[in-house]
């Protein structure tokens, strides 16, 4: 797999949507558009693409879709004016310097995206921590993955998914929990469908409040109530213990904490758990038997576990099932968290979260801070904890953030509790929005707009769900004056350094993305993810590589030797208690509203809405309810309803669907206020945080539904 195929300037690159990280071949057609086909040689997809990947070529060369020039707004009520890059960069640098001088480094915050490339992420991090002097740098990956990160770190000792995509074909049992792979990771789902067709003995279990398309291939479907998965997983482990299905040798040799957890599990009989999680007790027993008895069991999970105030507990309770049965570190087995965004994993590697430093280091650890300071040749890194995504906007609403730099994400649509988010964006003195697409609702709050290049105009790297680093390559020049994200950051950093720390100017001078990657890769030396021997040159010649990478080969699976990167070398069972989600149903708000993706749209649709064939799959948002609930609330299909709770209200048509449990309703996450006449779905969602991961509870809001009274 080389940089170009030699035909018509075709380049090998990666699809820019989900964390599967499918390889694509991109051919510029000479008119600002490209042709995209799957890359047969890429080990994520072997040529397969889903509907979104197949239509990537239709998203380029769209007049009016892109931001083409920097703009500046001199006052909050003034119109934005086009300015030169020189003027925009100077203004950003001046605003940062003034905020640091007058209010301190923590008056500055950076809110980034799992769609940035690793090189972009790395320089943002170096700017925030190494030059500005603040840990206030976080990302929209906080909304997707941080509970998975916490789950891995607390149980296995490191943020490292131990399995790989080939395990989909090698598993005897696949347990899919809180993941609609058919929509969110379609190519992985297709691999699983093909594996099941080839192996009729394979058992697939799906746990989800909705009987999604993913459940269509399930041998056992578990309609778990939103937020109650801990009861399900604890009861499964309890059954495994009763029936002697656990691997006592593995537990004794490679783990700690099982005795304490075992005490806890006594109360989680299948009957008791059934009352909590809504899954029939017989099905809990069957799931436990299949999971434990298979020669190799793989779990695939994502937002349905993570996006809850008990998301870390759910992750840990699921990982316990693998540790108790020894289904980890061998072909076809392991707890496999699927990342949502194309580079959520890369952001975790470079320290793009407030709670992480480069190379999976911890900002609360003085030795780790000193290591990074030495690598960056700065005196010290800040010790003050940084703000996570929701906390950042809460601080902004309180007037504590003076400059907020938002890159490649749309918080005015995608963060929970929109009333607070929009108040925060109005209160910040200077909102900088670095963005490629003109449709972002966050642009309405921007004082400075920096037009960014996007796929397929950027060079760099991403890491997919199986720890595989791939090259992203430019096939087109950026339109107008748009620039690559890392170049914008480097230019601002050099100007800011010239003002506040001239000795650091050269530290942000990079000739190309390969130099940024080389500096980043060096920070991983000696760490669990070590890929310090990896380079653009190796990726260009030998293709994508998994970490850890020893200079010749990456490791496909972790922990095969039973040694874990914890203080004792043993994996940890945690004494996970039962906690209910933060939002409680009540007489006023009796419906459990959950959210999720559609097959053909991506996030806030800045790109997918440009493609008519994708829009046709579902043309408008609707509230989906069980027919019995519609009867109870006297609602007709297609009727406009008001969905309301203590945070907000939205209006949209209602549809009947018995694939949902009664008492549970669903709205797709993609549509914002522009489509719904004011506020999007996140007017209703909760900013209640998981105390360990700081991930908000986007998957559950207690709401009422009533016929809309139109004026
Ligand atoms: Fe792109 Fe994900 Fe579809 Fe692959 S599965 S083509 S990465 S959206």
TrEMBL record:
It comes from Vogesella oryzagri. Residues 8-64 form the 4Fe-4S Mo/W bis-MGD-type domain. Its cofactor is [4Fe-4S] cluster; Mo-bis(molybdopterin guanine dinucleotide). The keyword Oxidoreductase applies. Keywords: 4Fe-4S, Iron, Iron-sulfur, Metal-binding, Molybdenum, Nitrate assimilation, Oxidoreductase. Signal peptide: none annotated. This is Molybdopterin-dependent oxidoreductase. Belongs to the prokaryotic molybdopterin-containing oxidoreductase family. NasA/NapA/NarB subfamily. The chain holds residues 1 to 711 of 894 of the full protein. The keyword Hydrolase does not apply.
